[in-house]
Amino acid sequence: MLPHRPHHARLLIALALVSLMKLPSQSFAGPLKDANPQAGGSNNPGVLPLGASAYGHTYGEWAERYWQWELAQPTATNPQLDATGEFAGAGQSGPLWFLAGTFGNSVERNITIPSGKALFFAVQPWIFGAGTFDCEPTVPGVTCDLPTLHAAAALATDGSSVVEASIDGVPVNNARGYRAADEGSFSIALPADNVVGIPAGTYSPQVVDGYWLLLAPLSAGSHTIQCHVVSNQLGGLDYTVTDHIQVVASHGMTAQVSASEFWKSAGADVAPAPVTKRSTWGHVKAIYR
Question: pTM, whole model, 2 decimals?
Answer without folding.
Answer: 0.78
